[in-house]
Amino acid sequence: MSRIDRAGRVIAAPPAAVYDALLDRESLEAWLPPDGMRGRIEWWDPRPGGGFRMVLTYLDPADSPGKTSDATDVVDVEFADLVPPERVVQRAVFEADDPSYAGTMTLTWHLAAAGDGTEVTVTATDVPPGIDQAVHEAGIASSLANLASYVERAG
Description:
The N and C termini lie far apart (41 Å). The protein has helices spanning 15-22, 25-31, 133-154; strands at residues 4-11, 37-45, 51-58, 72-83, 87-95, 105-114, 117-125. The protein has a single domain, classed as 2-Layer Sandwich (Alpha-D-Glucose-1,6-Bisphosphate, Chain A, domain 4), CATH 3.30.530. The chain has a seven-stranded antiparallel sheet. The protein is globular, with a radius of gyration of 15 Å. By secondary structure, the chain is of the alpha+beta class. A hairpin with a 2-residue loop joins β6 (105-114) and β7 (117-125). It contains three helices and seven strands; from the N terminus they run βααββββββα.
């Protein structure tokens, strides 16, 4: 059975605003990189079957060597399914020589109205074994905190 990593939180913004932040290039560059990283999108095609390529750079690579180079993780992401404003399904492949990072990881972002906000749950399946589960779940939680700050500030 493949490993499943999860994280979630309630964001004080409506589902449509959260969904929009998942499909806006500048928004993703701002909030998706977890703490200790910055991101740059190299290409962008926000439609089912489209996707993006993101270069994530570690601010201090000494503690977190990258998957692609000493200081970077490069990931190609396909938008496998888009259901506004309820769900975004992404298929992510890391550019890496190490086979422990090989394979396609699926990330499903579920958005559900929760009072005046949105409950966001991220489920990652088929996570490459080279990615430490605790570190990955902390990274997803960090991205969700960044997303909350981003959309709550904009709203």
